[in-house]
Amino acid sequence: MQYIGRFAPSPTGPLHFGSLVAAVASYCDAKANQGQWLLRIEDLDRPREVVGASDDIIYTLQAYGFVWDGDILYQSARSTAYQTALDELKLQGMVYPCTCSRKTITDTAEQKGIEGAIYPQTCLHQTIDLNKTPAWRFKTPDQETRFNDMALGLQSQQVATEIGDFVIKRADGLFAYQLAVIVDDAAQGVTHVVRGADLLTSTARQILLQDALGFTHPIYRHTPIVMNTLGQKLSKQTQAEPLPLDSVSTHLCRAFDFLTLNPPAYLVSATSNDCWEWAIQAWPASSSI
Ligand SMILES: [Zn+2]
Q1: How far is the CA of 98 from the centre of ligand 1 (A)?
Q2: DSSP designation for 143
Q3: Nearest one of 87, 97, 169, 89 to 132, comparing CA atoms
Q4: CA distances for 269 relative to 74, 137, 247, 265, 283, angstroms
Q5: What is the whole-number distance in angstroms between the Cα of residue 130 and the centre of ligand 1?
Q6: How far, in Å, from the CA of 85 to the mean position of ligand 1?
Q7: What separation in Å is there between the alpha carbon of 51 and the centre of ligand 1?
Q8: Spatial distance between the Cα atoms of 6 and 275, rounded to a whole number of angstroms
């Protein structure tokens, strides 16, 4: 089996140090396993997209010496594939339409999960208003989902009680991240997903969807998240600074250091090529196939 990894940023703003760490981890893991490394732009959420951010991300990755295999996949061009997956789930009776407003859900929900109110399955048990365009929810099975994370060990989540029946297509027509990501991973033959631990709690949902659609599960490895001095995750919302395009080796070494690779001091003044050569050697390729 050939290793296929990927990096999948959302174009909601420029890359910052936190995104660099995630990219470095997935790149080193792929290269240390003689794998391919794909680039996917997760531009599903057009309303949140920042004009020019995709090109800016691509330019920055190139400046840092990342080399991806094949063409860049844009999620905005993949609606047909997501709809096909939704149709398949409809055929299997694993999804149901929901016309509840956010307010109705908060007012009627009795349980709170890790991502807010747990949907009380109202529309599963009643006829829906046919004049409204519905959202589509996944009927979460009443079972524990387990997976072995390459960095964090055995993980388990009871999606039904911790998250609830989650939306995979919104009423406004946007497909949810959870569905898009597993359809793309399957289509691209991704074998290893190395990403930030902020996505750890999404993994069980993705595994349930993979099972429902008959897809194989990639191997997961979640890497530590970079926080700012206030203890917040670096992001556009927390005003993370864009990655500078100069002193590339210095920033690469900071990322290696954050990932506990302990780069030697001379590397900050070496070329980005030298940095990569060193890091790929130093990366613990424990997630070999
Ligand atoms: Zn509903």
Answers
A1: 4
A2: S
A3: 97
A4: 35, 52, 8, 8, 20
A5: 12
A6: 21
A7: 34
A8: 20
Q: What is the Å distance from ligand 1's center to 90 Cα? A: 16
Helix pair angle (272-282, 17-32), 10° resolution: 60
Tokens matching residue 248? 């590339």
Residue bearing tokens 């061009």: 77
pLDDT digits (tens, 9 = 90+) for 108-131: 888 889 988 999 999 999 888 889
Q: What is the pLDDT of residues 225-275, one digit of tens each?
A: 998 888 888 887 777 889 999 999 999 999 999 999 999 999 999 999 999
Dist. CA 76 → ligand 1 center (Å): 27
Nearest Cα neighbor of 240 from 10, 11, 14 is 14
**Strand residues in the chain grouped as ranges (E):** 4-7, 36-41, 73-74, 95-98, 112-113, 116-117, 135-138, 145-149, 153-157, 167-169, 192-196, 219-223
Domains of the chain: 4-78+189-196+215-282 (3.40.50.620), 80-169 (3.90.800.10)
Task: Count Cβ atoms below 10 Å from residue 229 Cβ, excluding itself.
Answer: 5
Q: How many A from CA of 17 to the centre of ligand 1?
A: 39
* Rounded distance from Cα 142 to ligand 1 centre (Å): 19
Measured between alpha carbons, how far is 214 from 80 in angstroms, rounded to an integer? Answer: 18
Is 89 in contact with 213 (CB distance < 8 Å)?
yes
Rounded to the nearest whole angstrom, what is the distance from the C-alpha of residue 45 to the centroid of ligand 1?
Answer: 22
The 10s digit of each residue's pLDDT in 134-184 is 999 999 999 999 999 999 999 999 999 999 999 999 999 999 999 999 999
Query: Residue 116 phi/psi, 5° resolution?
Result: 100, -160
Q: How far is the C-alpha of 85 from the C-alpha of 19, rounded, in Å?
A: 29
Per the document, the length of the chain is 289
